[in-house]
Specification:
193 residues; 7 strands
Length: 193
């Protein structure tokens, strides 16, 4: 089993680079930011906030020096919710159309409001040069085990059919499948303990 640990703060920049690089071709991100210049202008701040929030009050697991990362929200939301709306600053970078696309995605793929407590896998990323070596599975393992021990489901979203197959091998099943307007097919997946 590759070396997996909670992400130390000093790996933040390396982990962020892994995520930004790994998602550069993601169908959802390219629907929101189809131009390379827009992805470059927005993705680092977007993923940086996701990472920072989870480093502060969620769960972030890495392989080695950040070649793979999984970022989680615990049941009920972040352990310590932020005191300020840091999303507003990130969203100011977006065009009106980019904000609209995120709103369409969020409305289409949200976890059902009546869902019992659950873990949420916000991001799984592996450096492109390290993919298909088991690192993604490795950084998922601690939290899959935690969900099983506590008998809680896990939810995640993806816009990649290859990811649907990857997650199916780990016990995830589609709960919702939608095609976004002029955009990609997206899935909300759930894994029961």
């Amino acid at each position: 089993m590759p070396a997996v640990r909670r992400c130390p703060a000093d790996l933040r920049d390396r982990v962020l680079e892994t995520v930004v690089t790994a998602f550069a071709g993601d169908p959802l991100l390219r629907w929101v930011w189809p131009a390379e210049a827009r992805y470059d202008a927005c993705a680092r701040r977007f993923f940086g906030l996701l990472l920072d929030l989870r480093l502060e009050s969620g769960e972030v697991w890495v392989h080695g020096e950040g070649d793979a990362v999984s970022m989680w929200d615990p049941p009920g939301g972040l352990y310590v919710p932020p005191t300020e709306d840091r999303w507003a600053a990130v969203q100011r970078l977006f065009t009106d159309e980019e904000r609209r696309r995120w709103q369409v995605f969020d409305a289409s793929m949200s976890v059902p409001a009546a869902a019992a407590p659950y873990w949420y896998l916000g991001v799984l990323a592996t450096s492109p040069d390290r993919q298909r070596q088991g690192l993604g599975r490795a950084v998922l393992a601690p939290m899959l085990a935690a969900a099983d021990r506590t008998a809680l489901p896990i939810y995640l979203e993806t816009a990649s059919s290859a990811n649907v197959r990857f997650y199916a091998a780990l016990g995830f099943r589609p709960q919702t499948e939608v095609v976004l307007p002029d955009g990609p097919r997206c899935w909300l997946l759930r894994r029961d303990p």
